[in-house]
Amino acid sequence: MTRVRSRWPAILLVGALLALGAPAHGQRLDPASMEALAATLRVLQDPALRKGAIAKDPKAAAIDSQMRGMMGSDTLMAEFYDLAAQIFEELTRNSGGDAKKMTQALEQGRTDPAGVAALLSPTTLERLREFSGKIADRPR
Q1: Comparing C-alpha atoms, which of 26, 32, 30 is closest to residue 124?
Q2: Nearest residue to 110 (alpha-carbon basis) of 23, 31, 2, 18
Q3: Domain limits of the chain?
Q4: For every one of its 140 residues, what pLDDT tens digit does the chain have, with 9 covering 90 and above?
Q5: Separation in Å, CA 5 to CA 25, 87, 93, 121
Q6: Has this prediction a pTM greater than 0.70?
């Protein structure tokens, strides 16, 4: 079970963020980055907006479908997207809105989940651990 849980940070980061397009102290974002972050968070957290965004992109639809299969319930799926929004916000702030740095962090998450986890605040990391436990303990 430890092996399964250790893979969830990467799965959560990559899955949610691809589906839609550290110290706890983030860098200051410029106005355009703040606007883009707010728009992305709205899509991740609003089921109607999210559904519309997913419907427009076959890749996003495939990833969302795969994640739904992994979650097994609408409740866990909603929690998944809420957590993805929290992680995305931290990655955005910690990178100063630099898309290249964010992409590098996501790529790193595929092979080094612990490295990406180190970029998250203690609160988010604990929430991620708790959520990972819910997924790992879910009956198949």
Answers
A1: 26
A2: 18
A3: 2-20+30-137
A4: 444 444 444 455 555 554 444 333 445 788 888 888 899 899 999 999 999 999 999 988 998 898 888 888 899 999 999 998 998 898 888 888 888 888 888 888 778 877 777 778 999 989 988 888 888 877 76
A5: 26, 17, 26, 18
A6: yes
